[in-house]
Every structure is written in structure tokens, then in C-alpha cells.
Amino acid sequence: MRFLPQLAVLIFFFLGLRAAAGPGVGTLLAEAQAAETRFDSKSALVLLLQADAAQPNDPGILQKIARQYSDSTLDTTDLAEQKKLCALALTYAQRAHALAPKNAVNVLSLGICYAKIGFYADNKTKIANSRLVKDYAVEALALDPDYSYAHHVLGQWHHEVASIGPTTRFFVRLIYGGLPAASTAEGVQHLRRAVALDPQNPSHHAELGFALRSDGQTEAAQQAFTRALELPPREKHDLESQARVRAALKRS
Question: Do the Cβ atoms of 161 and 153 come closer than 8 Å?
């Protein structure tokens, strides 16, 4: 029976190694989710990068990292830093998509990354990325017709592109070959669908308000804006959407 003390020593040794290895992936992801709920992108990123190191090439983890890098652009006003964060977001989104190309979330994540990169880029890049945004949103909806954020992105694309003035549109066509056809009415339709699918999402209501206003539906736009401000923010970009609504109402 002399092996029993030795066995006990081995058990405690391996338990010690397991404890020293740190929290498991499930714990890291749960803590990252809690940080995201607090809109703490910095902490969420640290935890998700640890999860990625512990479980490499997991498309779900990679997509979450991409999202946090994207959300981190809201934490700085430094243009160079914002561009760097957008580039990192795109890198992780591309990795997630390469591993799971038929996942609607991964597909739309690419579109969102290109949209944000275009926000900080020159006009040529903006136009090229705008086409990609639409293509990825359409592809995401083909994979999941009830994906509210895909309706949101496609609706926003339609009403923003349709709102480009004739002079700007002429030069875009002359210099860059133009943009795909866009319709404010179609933008409203997609955004109404996003609201119907996820009525507690303040960003859906906010963007619907902007589309309705572009379509000349002032009263309906006001109702959408009011609802956007009534709902509690659930995600970091909801804070940005609500800030845009307040700024628009202040100007009107």
C-alpha cells in the first residue's frame, strides 16, 4: 500500500498544474461577456485574446475579438489609433470567415469592418468598401433571412447611398464608376424588418428614424427616435446610435 501516498502526491501535483494554467476557455468567455455588458472593450479584449491563445482558430472567439477591436474605436479620438483598431478588427473577422464562411455573423462582420474602415478612409476606399458592405449584408441575409443586424446594415446602406446628392453622385460615377442602385424606401423596409425581429434594440430604432427622415416621414421618424432613446443600451454601439439621435434632435 506504499503507492497510495505517492498517488496522492501525483494527484495534488496535477491539480496544481491545472490551477496554475489559469481559467478555462468557458470562464474567459463568460468574463469577456460580462465586460462587454459593461461596455468595457479593453477588459473584454484581454480576456478574449487569452481565450484565443488557449483555443486557437475558434471562429466564434475570433469574431468576438473582431467586434471588440471595432468597438474600441469609440474609446479614442486619435485617428491613427482608430484606423489601427479597424485594421485589427478586419484581420480577425477575415480569419473567422475563413474558418466558417457560411456563418451569417462572420459574413456580416466583414461588411461592418469595411464600413468602419471606409469611415476613416479616402473617397476611393469609401466607394470600394461601400460596395463590399452591401455585398456582405446581402450574403448574410441569404444565409439567415431573419438576421436583424443584416437587415439593419443593408437598410442603412440603402438610405445613406440613396441620400447622396446628385452632384456628388455624378462625380462618383465619373471618377469611380458609380455605386449600385439604392432606395430610401428599401432602406426603410429593411430597417422596419430589423425592428420587428429585435424590437428591444435601440440601434435598430435609431437607424430607422434616420431612414424615415430621409424619406420625408417626419412624424414616424420622431417616433422611432423617441423609442431609440427610451430603450436601455445593450451593446456599445447603441451608445453611439443614441448619441447620434440626440445630436440630430438638437439640430432640428
Answer: no
End-to-end CA distance of the chain: 86
Print the domain residue range for 190.
146-252
Under 8 Å between Cβ of 241 and 202: yes
Q: Check which CATH number belongs to the domain holding 206 and give it.
A: 1.25.40.10
Of 179 and 38, the structure prediction assigns the larger pLDDT to: 38
Phi, psi of 33 (to 5 degrees): -65, -40
Q: Locate cell 505517492: which residue? A: 6
Over the chain, what is the mean pLDDT? 88
The amino acid at residue 130 is S
Amino acid at position 207, single letter: E
Q: Determine phi and psi for 39, rounding to 5 degrees.
A: 65, 30
Cα(205)–Cα(224) distance, rounded to whole angstroms?
5
Does the predicted TM-score (pTM) go above 0.85?
A: yes
In the 8-state DSSP scheme, what is residue 38? T
> 10 Å Cβ neighbour count for 39?
17
